[in-house]
């Protein structure tokens, strides 16, 4: 585990000291290290524990934001009670306590999605190691288990399909290509969480290109952290999910101190 970078180390105490804070995290590549089989992805135990303990402190709210469907995400992250979920890149939102914001497709969109899926299945039938995943508002082409050359073929095929289905938004992710008929983004999801929680400040940690939509909606009091390399709008950067584990553990220590002071100061 590498130490949390110096500048982020300075920003965390300010964040932890705000009355209401929202801690929002991506899952794959952020809480969970990448694995060949997406079905085997699991969060690092230190992050699970830190988020459980953070959630138990007054004024701390936890949100998970992922391209995965909410049903899969909520099962996988081992969330604390009261956690909120943004799934399918913002197309599905679960605010906890039975409050769900589903984005249902209209009939024309549903028909377009069915055509798009059939078209992808035809184009990709001959490419080994490809898996299609159905989402409530789209479909995802996974090629993490394909050889590099086959991954390239899959992207080419996806682009050809996109030309025939221009209403769908196509997004390149980490060894995935996603098509969505509803153009929600992680930024839209974060905006819904923010409206619901009304935090004084928000922390968002993510690793993928789709997380940039989340970084883009953060304000001057918020803290944005990119995991890994590549261009990013985020203010800060860490290297790996293990570093996220360190960051959450540091945040927990800081917030506990704030909580202890506010209790003894009463
Ligand atoms: Mg990710």
From TrEMBL:
InterPro entries in alphabetical order: HAD-like_sf, HAD_sf, OTSB-like, Trehalose_PPase
Protein name in the entry: Trehalose 6-phosphate phosphatase
GO BP terms, alphabetized: trehalose biosynthetic process
Any Pfam family matching the protein: Trehalose_PPase
Lineage: Bacteria, Bacillati, Actinomycetota, Actinomycetes, Micrococcales
Catalytic activity field: alpha,alpha-trehalose 6-phosphate + H2O = alpha,alpha-trehalose + phosphate
Enzyme Commission number: 3.1.3.12
Gene3D superfamilies assigned to the protein according to its UniProt record, in alphabetical order: HAD superfamily/HAD-like, Trehalose-6-phosphate phosphatase related protein, domain 2
Signal peptide positions (record): none
Origin: domain of life: Bacteria
Origin species: Spelaeicoccus albus
Family, similarity comment: Belongs to the trehalose phosphatase family.
């Amino acid at each position: 585990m590498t130490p949390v970078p110096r500048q982020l180390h300075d920003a965390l105490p300010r964040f932890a000291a705000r009355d209401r804070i929202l801690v929002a995290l991506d899952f794959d590549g952020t809480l969970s290290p990448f694995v060949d089989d997406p079905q085997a992805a699991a969060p690092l135990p230190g992050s699970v524990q830190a988020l459980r303990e953070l959630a138990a402190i007054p004024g701390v709210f936890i949100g998970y934001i992922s391209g995965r469907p909410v049903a899969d995400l909520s099962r996988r992250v081992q969330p604390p009670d009261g956690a909120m979920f943004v799934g399918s890149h913002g197309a599905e939102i679960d605010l906890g306590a039975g409050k769900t914001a589903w984005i249902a497709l209209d009939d024309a969109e549903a028909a377009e999605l069915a055509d798009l899926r059939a078209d992808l299945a035809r184009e990709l039938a001959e490419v080994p190691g490809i898996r299609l995943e159905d989402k409530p508002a789209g479909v995802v082409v996974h090629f993490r288990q394909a050889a590099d050359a086959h991954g390239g073929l899959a992207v080419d095929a996806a682009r050809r399909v996109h030309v025939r289905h221009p209403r769908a938004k196509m997004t390149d992710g980490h060894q995935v290509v996603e098509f969505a008929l509803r153009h929600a983004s992680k930024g839209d999801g974060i905006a819904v969480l923010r409206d619901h929680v009304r935090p004084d400040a928000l922390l968002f940690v993510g690793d993928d290109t789709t997380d940039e939509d989340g970084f883009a909606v953060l304000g001057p009091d918020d803290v944005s952290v990119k995991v890994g390399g590549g261009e990013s709008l985020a203010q800060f950067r860490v290297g790996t999910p293990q570093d996220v584990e360190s960051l959450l553990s540091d945040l927990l220590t800081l917030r506990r101190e704030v909580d202890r002071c506010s209790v003894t100061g009463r």
